[in-house]
Specification:
The structure holds two protein chains of two kinds.
Chain A: E1 10-19, E2 25-26, H1 28-36, E3 46-51, E4 61-67, H2 70-83, E5 84-91, E6 105-113, H3 115-121, H4 125-139, E7 143-147, E8 152-157, H5 161-167, E9 174-175, E10 177-185, E11 198-200, E12 203-209, H6 214-222, H7 233-248, H8 252-259, H9 264-267, H10 272-284, E13 294-300, E14 303-308, E15 317-321, E16 324-328, H11 332-335, E17 343-345, E18 353-356, E19 361-362
Antiparallel strand pairs in A: 1-10, 1-16, 2-9, 3-8, 3-10, 4-6, 4-7, 5-6, 11-12, 12-13, 13-14, 14-18, 15-16, 15-17, 18-19
Helix pairs in contact in A: 1-5, 6-7
Chain B: E1 10-14, H1 24-28, E2 34-37, E3 42-45, H2 55-59, E4 65-69, H3 82-94, E5 99-100, E6 115-117, E7 138-140, E8 163-165, E9 169-171, H4 181-194, E10 198-199, E11 216-220, H5 229-234, E12 237-241, E13 252-254, H6 261-267, E14 275-277, H7 287-300, E15 307-312, H8 317-325, E16 331-335, E17 344-345, H9 346-351, H10 356-369, E18 377-381, H11 387-396, E19 400-403, H12 405-411, H13 433-436, H14 441-465, E20 481-483, H15 488-494, E21 497-498
Parallel strand pairs in B: 9-19, 10-11, 11-12, 12-15, 15-16, 16-18, 18-19, 20-21
Antiparallel strand pairs in B: 1-4, 2-3, 5-17, 6-20, 7-8, 13-14
Helix pairs in contact in B: 4-14, 8-10, 11-14
The chains are: A alpha+beta, B alpha/beta.
Binding site for [4Fe-4S] cluster 2 (chain B): 29, 50, 53, 56
Binding site for [4Fe-4S] cluster 1 (chain B): 19, 22, 25, 60
Catalytic activity (chain B): 2 L-glutamate + NADP(+) = L-glutamine + 2-oxoglutarate + NADPH + H(+)
């Protein structure tokens, strides 16, 4: 059984680090941070999203692909060659790590859509890209694109997250932002694609919790052309964020007001203008409200958003030191990499912490 | 002729040891069942007139009365039931169409009773509605397809007219005429107090009730009775009634005997004339005609009110709904084959239409498949019997439900299914002044408020159990449902898994 054939709830650990100035750091810190929360995962999935790691290819989409066999690779590459100009391709470098086994073929391609194909499709470039990725993931048996953004990449596997980090030699990458995920699924899938983060274009999500609105969210988002093939919470949350941000044009703080909307009783105590704002969002995007426990870290081009569910049913702490902002389920996972914090706080339920490059930390605290 | 004699289906049983001959039963029965025998100082009764409405039973001060099903029977026959045989006797005698009231009582599957709800265990927490907010507020109307920002980049409210409800339940269309003034007043006041809506049905709106306009949906049906500009503007939404679950494909008929006084005035037809609503709207012979009526009504009300199109659940309901969702309508109301009525031909009521659960599931799916689910909200009725039915309907994909029969039961209806006689002993489906006054709207509206508050509490408990704290996260959340004893095809149509899966 793998993701997509059955819905698998899971508990988790999440962690994230960003440098507001865009200064790049190695992946070492994030591995250290997530390893502290070892007991929050059970060895059945771990992964990382890293931003700013491919400056030399920053104008190209970086595709990270799992292949179950060379046949799948061949079919997929034929597809890629028909749709994209492939600038570079290589195996993603890995090292042997005890505890990481059964690895698929893991390849990386830097691509850009063929101008004529793109024009024929009448789509904008990112939509074209997303459509191609959906095509591969639903039509080509044994091939799975698990990362497809620019100047960013997802690295994930079945195993404990710290082992996954070493396996991908994450300490050798340098980026301005990293997020990490350790997974505690409630059964035993052994599929690498099912690990997290889940990503679409430059949006990546790591998530802890099990949402109760899942099927309402899934059926709503599928109406807009998304196909939830993994049946995981993280997948549907990623699509919701992509839809609201990229397609509808909402800002991240507005998205937080949609997916973790304040309660009506809270809204009734707000200024009239704020009331109107929230009533509008809750009405217009009611199907994108997410209920049930979650803490998520959304990575995107140029920033990061941390958000808890409206009741704060999952733990999440934020720490700040100089230009760096740290987010994790547990404070210990922050202190291990930065013991001397300028500020540390636990954001309230539904209160987003948005960190933008060259910007401040947008938070109510 | 002896062959026409039909033994009463129900017998009135009087315990003479308890009876004190107070004659309450005699005074209370508009059907003339009970009679006082002065010579014997004793009550007697004619079972054949009894409709089993329980008025006498409920008001007997000494509990001396009960109604039992008669054990008189023809020779048992699995094919030819007593009911079938009796109906043939009646029709052979009268040559007429059989008439019935209220919803289809026959033994068809009730899918709501074969669907079970989920609850949280371990992997996520249930939420206690007594300690945490639990939201049941809903909006009905189209959703915007894009956002708009002003010069400063602030979001602009680009929502089309919509309804805001405190909970996903409304009182469905029942006309003034088919039900009494006091029943209407009870519904209107309850809707106002609850922050929901009631529906005028096709009988116009009594001028006394214009003050409840903020909680009124005005109906426009094929007879156009009582429709004028003030009427259209008086409510918050306009419902075009294309069909009714109890009698899909046919119109309505309020006999002239009920068109008296204010009813004649409200319907804008002379006293004593029959109010006949044609089967179709004679200006709507296809979907493009519906679009014209939708926009005519919007023009007439300055595009300030959402338009509801109500249809009966029939075989092709998904395709019909898909057409309506592109007609400019803001809300589609679907009425299942169990839906109630003040009068319908028995054969139609009992044999036409499909269950609302299946209609809802297939409409919701079709609209999503076609990417037009956001064009409209879905309201379903016929029949929603409890808060559990509400939760299941919402999880199948409804935005809101309509209740009719349940509301009337709250007002005292005992489902004797004799509304067409006009002699409702509970003061609901009658225009006889002495009967109407039996329903005190002061008490009636409170009972409706109680019922809805009770349902709301139960809805919140069930939502909390599922770990859902806002009703929109339940809408279309079919993973919260499992079927029991349903076959593959039924599960496929409902879009749910079987229990244990």
């Amino acid at each position: 059984m793998r993701e997509g054939q059955i819905r698998i709830p899971s508990g988790c650990a999440i962690s994230g680090i960003i440098d507001k100035t865009g200064k790049r750091m190695s992946g070492e810190a994030i591995i250290k941070s997530i390893s502290v929360m070892h007991d929050r995962s059970n060895g059945l999935g771990g992964g990382f999203a890293a931003y700013g790691i491919y400056p030399e290819y920053k104008d190209f989409y970086a595709l990270h692909i799992f292949y179950e066999n060379t046949g799948a690779k061949k079919s997929c590459e034929e597809f890629l060659e028909r749709h994209f100009d492939i600038i570079n391709l290589s195996k993603i470098p890995t090292r042997k790590v005890k505890g990481i086994t059964d690895e698929p073929l893991i390849w990386r391609y830097f691509v850009t859509p063929f101008a004529t194909k793109l024009a024929d499709s009448q789509l904008d470039e990112r939509e074209y890209m997303a459509k191609c990725v959906f095509r591969v993931n639903t039509r080509i048996q044994g091939a799975y694109v698990f990362s497809c953004g620019k100047n960013m990449g997802v690295f994930k596997a079945v195993g404990f997250p710290e082992d996954v980090g070493r396996f991908y030699r994450l300490e050798e990458y340098e980026g301005y932002c990293f997020t990490a995920h350790g997974r505690y699924p409630t059964n035993t899938p052994g599929w690498w694609g099912g690990a997290h983060p889940f990503a679409l274009l430059d949006y990546s999500v790591v998530h802890n919790g099990e949402i109760s609105s899942y099927d309402a969210n899934r059926r709503a988002i599928e109406m807009y052309g998304y196909k939830c093939t993994l049946l995981t919470d993280t997948e549907v949350i990623t699509y919701i964020i992509d839809y609201l941000h990229r397609k509808i044009g909402l800002k991240m703080e507005e998205i937080a007001s949609v997916i973790a909307a304040p309660f009506w009783q809270t809204i009734s105590r707000m200024e009239p203008e704020k009331q109107k704002y929230h009533e509008y969002l809750r009405n217009a995007f009611s199907a994108q409200l997410i209920t049930g426990p979650f803490s998520i870290i959304v990575g995107f081009d140029g920033g990061i958003m941390a958000l808890n569910d409206r009741l704060k049913l999952r733990s999440m702490v934020v720490g700040e030191k100089g230009d760096k902002v740290y987010i994790a389920n547990e404070e210990a996972a922050i202190r291990i990499v930065e013991p001397d914090l300028d500020r540390v706080w636990a954001p309230s339920g539904g209160e987003p912490v948005i960190v933008l490059l060259n910007g401040g930390v947008n938070s109510g605290s | 002729m002896a062959v026409n004699y039909i033994y009463p289906e129900y017998e009135v049983v009087r315990n003479y040891d308890r009876c004190i001959v107070c004659r309450v039963c005699e005074r209370q029965c508009a059907n003339g069942v009970h009679e006082y025998l002065p010579d014997l100082n004793k009550m007697t009764c004619d079972d054949s007139k009894c409709v089993n409405c329980h008025r006498c039973v409920a008001l007997c001060p000494t509990r001396a009365l009960k109604i039992v099903k008669s054990d008189n029977t023809y020779k048992e026959n699995a094919n030819w039931s007593n009911k079938t045989i009796n109906e043939i006797y009646r029709q052979a005698e009268s040559g007429g169409v059989l008439l019935s009231s209220m919803g289809n009582p026959e033994n068809y599957p009730i899918y709501f009773d074969k669907i079970l709800l989920n609850a949280s265990q371990v992997t996520n927490p249930s939420i206690d509605p007594l300690r945490e907010p639990m939201e049941t507020k809903v909006f009905l109307g189209a959703k915007p397809k894009a956002i708009k920002r002003d010069a400063e980049g602030k979001l602009v409210d680009n929502l089309t007219p919509h309804l805001t409800l405190s909970m996903p339940v409304m009182f469905s269309a029942m006309s003034y005429g088919s039900i009494s003034y006091n029943a209407h007043e009870s519904l209107a006041r309850a809707a106002k107090e609850l922050g929901i809506f009631y529906n005028t049905g096709e009988g116009g709106l009594h001028e006394d009730f214009y003050k409840y306009g903020d909680h009124t949906i005005v109906q426009v049906a094929s007879g156009r009775f009582g429709v004028h500009p003030d009427y259209l503007s008086s409510g918050v939404a306009i419902e075009i009634k294309m069909g009714q679950g109890a009698k899909p494909g046919i119109g309505g008929h309020l006999p002239g005997t009920k068109i008296v006084g204010d009813i004649s005035k409200t319907r804008m037809i002379p006293e004593g004339t029959d109010a006949i609503s044609p089967a179709p709207h004679h200006d709507i012979y296809s979907i493009e005609d519906l679009r014209q009526l939708v926009y005519s009504l919007k023009e007439a009300t300055d595009y300030k009110k959402p338009v509801i199109v109500k249809i009966a659940a029939v075989h092709n309901v998904a395709a019909i709904a898909s057409g309506i969702a592109r007609s400019g309508a803001d809300i589609i109301a679907i009425d299942g084959f169990r839906g109630g009525t003040g009068a319908a031909p028995t054969r139609i009521r009992d044999n036409v239409g499909i269950p609302i659960e299946l209609a809802l599931a297939s409409v919701d799916k079709r609209l999503r498949d076609e990417g037009i689910r956001d064009n409209v909200s879905l309201v379903v009725g016929g029949s929603i019997r409890s808060s559990a039915d509400v939760v299941k309907a919402v999880a199948l994909g409804a935005d809101c439900v309509y209740i009719g029969t349940a509301a009337l039961i709250a007002l005292g209806c005992h489902l004797c299914r004799s509304c067409h006689s006009g002699k409702c002993n509970w003061g609901i489906a009658t225009q006889v002044p002495s009967l109407v006054k039996r329903l005190n709207p002061e008490i009636g509206y409170k009972r409706l408020v109680n019922l809805m508050n009770a349902w709301k509490h139960e809805i919140m408990e069930m939502m909390g159990g599922m770990g859902i704290n806002s009703i929109e996260a339940l809408k279309g959340n079919r993973l919260m449902l499992r079927g029991v004893g349903l076959n593959e095809k039924e599960l496929e149509i409902l879009g749910i898994k079987h229990a244990g899966e």
